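Quick illustration, no need to memorize.
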Amino acid sequence: MSGQPASALPVPGPAPVPIPVPVDLLIRNAWIVTMDASRRIFRDGALAVVGDRIHAVGPSAEVEAMVRAREVLDGSRFVLTPGFVNCHVHITGEPITRGAVPDDADWETNVMGWLIPTYQAQTPEEERLSARFAALEMLRSGTTCFIEAGTILDLGAVHDGLAETGIRGRIGQWAQDRAFDPAEDQAALTAAAIDTLQREVERYSGAGDPLLAAWPALVGHVTATDELWRAATQLAREHGAGVTAHMSPDPQDPAFFLAATGRRPIAHLAEIGALGPQLSLTHAIFLDQAEVDLLASSGTHVTHCPMTAMKGAYGASHSGLFPEMAAAGVPIQLGTDGNNNGNSADMMRAMYVTAGLFKDSRRDSSLFSAYEVLECATLNGAAGAQMSHLIGSLEPGKKADFVAHDRNRPEWTPLLNPVNQLVWSADGRGVHSVWVDGRRLIDSYRSTTIDEDAIIADVERTAPLVLARAGKTVPSRWPVL
């Protein structure tokens, strides 16, 4: 030592008290299902928000000591979860004609006889109304982000209507280009489809992580040429976006590809370079194991729409290789599809069906546990939306997109395992409050950005007009007096 007397050595003082960080919101004393890397669940947790980001998540006492909050909410009534990500939903057309299509229509009758005519009978203003109504239903049931299946007429009207709601989403103009009539000009169709995709993606680009941005939204099935597939893939890669398309809900898709290319659909998409993490394929029921392996090795996402599969008798539980996809590592995400197919945009209902469908059909209760299904609805959905760095879990630095489920309800009582309760007992009717980008969009079961009474009245008035224009009457086996 230096030889100095002990009395001359500095005496350590008390450790400095950390200065609390100012935050905009603190919710304390809540159950919190974080979906972080360790999948931590806090029984008495707190979540702090600054602006549009999560500042801290952890035990209430620990987080409270770190912050000084402008607003403090008692969360003892709530279970907090990340917002759900609906990876396939038709936000135009079907929300304002929900329930019109009979539930005994086969796939061909449903799509060609009902859905396409009603889609084409809309006006741009009705598409805007439909999109806003879809946003209300999604937000009210805990969905904070969605991937649109495709706007039919006017993406601008849809974008502007959604922007007023505050929801997060990826939207797109529905595109197809295959000439089924020999008299059609294939080159002109393809050029027009590519121009539409490029124009809309550039018009609503994803720079700076906006709430709403445009993607290439292909109809899929057999309607896109290889040139359109390649163009959509290139656009997505250039803009950090994704591509969404329907594929193989029915044996017609594999039959067409085998006849036209000698390969099954997934093998053909691999051949032309269209598979990859940018692509989300919806339905994907009629696959073989080689296609499953291609999806897994390429990182292609599959959106399972279990409610539509059940109502439409698609054969998911009979023919779908979803357990094999999960085992192979295919990222499976969930969608609710259209309001005349799944008929509900409640992702919690989709989780329930996903958890049960293959347990029953394979007689194997280990398939699709509640934990795995919640990952499909949050983390996998965020990755499919190309936003896993922003959403999908409750962690510091991520966007403040989260849901407060009301545990003061019979289906949440007693609360012993919140993941089991969330998937097997609860549904979207128990969603009390929702935040997106740090903004409270649902407060005490009501929207803060949408006049609910007015929009419901508008939809009731509009639905018969759209159906009449489409030449449709709603059938009923029983007399309506």
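Residues 222 and 295 are 18 Å apart (CA to CA).
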